[in-house]
């Protein structure tokens, strides 16, 4: 199989691997009737696209944050995510990425650690 495009760095491979994992979880959650995690992941990628490739600490931080969010979204009681402004009152704690995970078991929003320091 021929490889197309430039060779990817280790961090780029990690980001793409995380994104593919989110897409897999999103497909499974959508089949269960949840809202799209893929749209949230795409929004996060787009909002961080301008980060300098040499800002390794920030990129690694965002990868760790994304993995923590993925772990949260994989929980069986989480069925999807609601983006800020996509429908009724979505809870956000003041960051630019106002996503909240929705829980089918309790029927209420569960904060999606998107604004957690860390």
Structure commentary:
The chain has about 120 residues and is α+β, with helices and mostly antiparallel strands. The protein has one domain (about 10-110). Helices cover about 45% and strands about 10% of the residues. The chain has a three-stranded antiparallel β-sheet. A hairpin with a 5-residue loop joins β2 (about 100-105) and β3 (about 110). α1 (about 10-30) packs parallel to α3 (about 55-75). The protein is globular and about 40 Å long. The model is unreliable at about 85-95 and about 100-118 (pLDDT under 50).
Give a quick set of tags describing it:
3 helices, globular, 118 residues, disordered C terminus, single chain, three-stranded antiparallel sheet, alpha+beta, 3 strands
In short:
This protein is an alpha+beta fold and 118 residues long. 43% of the residues lie in helices and 12% in strands. The chain has helices at residues 10-31, 37-47, 56-73, and strands at 78-83, 99-103, 109-111.
Order of helices and strands: HHHEEE
Q: What's the tally of helices? A: 3
Termini separation:
39 Å
Largest sheet: 3 strands, antiparallel
Stretches with pLDDT under 50, minimum 5 residues = 87-97, 102-118
Shape: globular
**Structural class, from secondary structure content?**
alpha+beta
User: Helical residue percent?
Assistant: 40-55%
How many domains in all?
Answer: 1
Oligomer: single chain
Order of strands across the biggest sheet?
A: 1-2-3
| Beta-strand content | 5-15%
Total beta-strand segments: 3
Mean pLDDT: 72
Evaluate the radius of gyration: 15 Å
């Amino acid at each position: 199989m021929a490889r197309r495009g430039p060779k990817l760095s280790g961090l780029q491979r990690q980001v793409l691997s995380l994104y593919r994992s989110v897409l897999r979880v999103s497909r499974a959650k959508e089949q269960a009737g949840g809202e799209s995690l893929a749209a949230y992941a795409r929004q996060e990628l787009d909002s961080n696209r301008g980060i300098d490739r040499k800002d390794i600490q920030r990129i690694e931080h965002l990868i760790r944050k994304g993995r923590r969010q993925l772990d949260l979204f994989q929980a069986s009681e989480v069925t999807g995510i609601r983006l800020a402004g996509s429908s009724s009152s979505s809870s956000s704690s003041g960051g630019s990425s106002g996503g909240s995970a929705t829980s089918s078991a309790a029927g209420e929003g569960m904060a999606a650690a998107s604004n957690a320091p860390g």
